[in-house]
Amino acid sequence: VPIEFVGVSPAVKDLGGILVKVMHEVEIESLPRDLPQNIEVSIEQVSQTQDGNTKMTGARFSGRTDDGENFEITAEQAVDNMPKQGLIHLLKPDGTIWTKNGSIIKINSLEAILDQSKETTLFQGTVEINQTKPKVNINTSELLVDLVNKIYHSNQPVIVVTENMKIKGEDMSINQDSGTIYFGGYANLVI
In terms of DSSP bridges, do strands 94-98 and 87-91 run parallel, antiparallel, or are they unpaired? Predict the structure, then answer.
C-alpha cells in the first residue's frame, strides 16, 4: 500500500529542511475489501528544535515484540537525539502493551526516554501502571520497560495494589513471562 505524505513540515517550510522519504509503501495483511488505497502521513507537526533535533507533536510509536505482543506509545511531543544521539525524549507518554494472555498493560508518566536500539523505555515522574489480568495498579517515580526480555524494573520506591493486598517496596522488578514481582530491600505487605 503506498504511503502519501500530506501537509508541509515547518522544518521544511521555515528552516529550509529537506524531507527524505525512506519508506514509500508498507505491506499490510488484510482481506481485499479492507485494504486501503493508500496511507496518509501528516508531516505538519514535524519541526526542528534550536539544537537541530527533530520535534514532533502528537507522536505515536508502535510495534510488535518477537513473540507477537503488540505495543504502542503515544506522547504529546517527541524530540529525537535527546538527551543524546539515538534516544527519543517523550513528553507525557502513554504506553499500552497487549499481552498474549489477553491482559492489557497501560503505563503513563510525565516523561520518558525511548531507546529504539535496545527496545527499552525509561518512564520518569509519577509513573502509573495498570494491568487488567490480574488487576494490578503500580505507582513509582521511575520505571524501565524492557520489551525484549519482558522485564519491568524500578530502583525507586513502589506501591503495588491488587484487589486484596497492598505492597510498599524500596524497589521492584517484574518478570512478565513468569508473572513474578521481586522486591528489593524492605517491603511492607498489607492484606
Answer: unpaired
Cα separation of 145 and 138, whole Å?
13
Question: What is this structure's pTM?
Answer: 0.76
Asked if residue 55 lies in contact with residue 45, where contact means CB atoms within 8 angstroms, the answer is no
* Residues 65, 72 contacting (CB under 8 angstroms): no
Whether 48 shows a pLDDT value over 70: the answer reads no
Per the listing, cell 501537509 goes with 7
**DSSP for 88-114, written as a single string:** EEEES-EEEEE-TTS-EEEEE-SEEEE
Cα separation of 109 and 90, whole Å? 10
8-state DSSP, 186: E
- Would you state the cell numbers that stand for residue 27, as one nine-digit string? 505491506
